[in-house]
Amino acid sequence: MKKIDTYLTDYKAKTNPDELIDQLLESTSIRRFVMNHDLKHDTIVSSLNQLLAFKEGESICQSCKGLYECKMSYLGMTPHLSYYQNAINLDYVRCQYNLKDDPKTKIKAYYVPKKIFDADMADFSLIGDARKAIHQHMISFLNNYKPSHPMKGMFLSGIYGAGKTYILAALANELAKKEYKVTFVYYPDLVRELKSSIGSGDLEDRVQELKKAQILFLDDFGGESSSAFIRDEVLGPILQHRVLDELPTFFSSNIKMKSVIQSMAFDGSEWETTKAIRIFERIRTLAVEFELNEKPKLSY
After folding, report:
1. Distance between CA 171 and CA 250 in Å, rounded?
2. What count of other Cβ atoms lies within 10 Å of the Cβ of residue 207?
3. What pairs with residue 290 in β-bridges?
4. Regarding beta strands 215-219 and 182-186, do their DSSP bridges make them parallel or antiparallel, or are they unpaired?
């Protein structure tokens, strides 16, 4: 939001105060405020700066869909008018998106340090075509996704240190702010846990949880020593359920999506390759691939 004082003086000099007042009263909020406090003409004229700033801020806030696209100078704040000691005062209070509970309570994180959820899309580097494309997909997802309007997630592939986990964590934060329930899993540790729980009820409970997660993030996918059992009895059913129910799924990986076939065909046989291709096809159905081959120019 630009500083309104930089143009108000010129604007008022060129515009009749009564014309300005008529424009201000087009705002239902301002009209109600004036009526509730029975404000006189002189009081309104002497407070045109405050009222114009309020109207501009109100217009910005009315079209806002969440903190991730806040255009106010003070993030998450919305203008508020008060009348005190015969004067109109303009203050800023927390907006509807800033009043919600800590969004991190909406994120179930497994084997992931909580500090990564300090990630912020405001720090996202837009240097490079790949990062711009990723950012565009994220914004589109945040603006347009609804359970009734399914959208593909992302498969972020590329070198170590490119910021893939940070990108996913920043997106998870924004989705949590929009009241979505997010499950964020460090996949290699998940595989190790599931291997140790084979034959127990814990395995089936975790598989069911990941199948049905409202929005699922699998971080460092392909960075683990897997097995045919994990592929066929755990990962396959999870991905298949999410494909059928069109549930958003996001991945980060040090290998390209196509390389999943080679990674999960454990003995190179035709049968193994066929099973690995099934995993690849499910991932491709769930997510759009973006490749990051260089580290961010600016540190996250």
Report:
1. 10
2. 17
3. 156
4. parallel
The answer to whether the beta carbons of residues 174 and 66 sit under 8 Å apart is yes
| Dist CA 268 CA 264 (whole Å) | 9
Q: What predicted TM-score, i.e. pTM, was given to this entire model?
A: 0.65
Res. 117 pLDDT band, cuts 50 70 90? confident
Interacting residues of 190 by C-beta distance below 8 A, sequence separation 6+: 110, 111, 206, 218
Task: Quickly count helices (H) and strands (E) in the chain.
Answer: 13, 8
Residue 295 token pair: 């580290």
Closest alpha carbon to 207 in 228, 223, 231: 231
List the structure tokens of 193.
């846990």
At 287 the three-state DSSP class reads strand
Contacts 24+ apart (CB under 8 A), 121-129: 121/68, 121/170, 121/171, 121/173, 121/174, 123/170, 123/300, 124/167, 124/170, 125/163, 125/296, 125/297, 125/298, 125/300, 127/296, 127/297, 127/298, 128/294, 128/297
**The predicted structure's pLDDT at residue 180:** 92
User: If 0-12 CB within 10 Å is exposed, 13-18 middle and 19+ buried, where does residue 272 land?
Assistant: middle
